[in-house]
Design brief:
This protein is of the alpha/beta class. The protein is built from 5 helices and 4 strands; from the N terminus they run E-H-E-H-E-H-E-H-H. The termini are far apart. Catalyzes the formation of 6,7-dimethyl-8-ribityllumazine by condensation of 5-amino-6-(D-ribitylamino)uracil with 3,4-dihydroxy-2-butanone 4-phosphate. This is the penultimate step in the biosynthesis of riboflavin.
Length: 161
């Protein structure tokens, strides 16, 4: 299981952060779990009014993330699912999404939580979606990582806090 060795992140004083969640629509059951996990994590962190936007698929996540990064968000969470099929499409989409979201983060300085599952099978995706019986909750993890990074960046840019 890939979740072994995950850090326990302590995130405090982040209720005032402006956070957006962007979620793809492919693989509805998996996406419902990822979105629920993300919203639960935000609520646990005291961020009760996040922006939630839906896009057609994972490939559309980077362009929306880039626009949101330029509109004053402190953190963005990108959620999607890409499941391997019988053609190279999986590799192209997975690489494009990964590089695109990384570029948004590096270019803008706004953390983007990477909650895009790239799996060989639907069963692997369901096991990571945070649903009842899942072993992992990648939506929750992506929020925690993005918000923790935003909180860290706040201390770097505002040392008086």
């Amino acid at each position: 299981m890939s979740g072994k060795g995950a850090p326990e992140l302590s995130v405090r004083n982040c209720g005032d952060l402006r956070v957006a969640v962007i979620a793809a629509q492919w693989h509805e059951k998996v996406m419902d779990g990822l979105v629920d996990g993300a919203l639960r994590a935000l609520h646990e962190l005291g961020i009760d009014e996040p922006t939630l936007l839906r896009v057609p698929g994972s490939f559309e996540l980077p362009v929306v993330a880039k626009v949101l990064a330029g509109r004053g968000y402190d953190a963005i969470v990108a959620l999607g699912v890409v499941i391997r099929g019988g053609t190279p499409h999986f590799e192209y989409v997975s690489q494009g999404v990964t590089l695109g979201l990384t570029q948004v983060t590096v270019d803008t300085g706004v953390p983007v939580g990477f909650g895009v599952l790239t799996c060989d099978t639907e069963e692997q995706a369901l096991d990571r979606a945070g649903l009842e019986g899942s072993n992992e909750d990648k939506g929750h993890e992506a929020v925690t990582a993005a918000v923790a990074t935003a909180a860290t960046l706040r201390t770097v840019s505002e040392p008086w806090r």
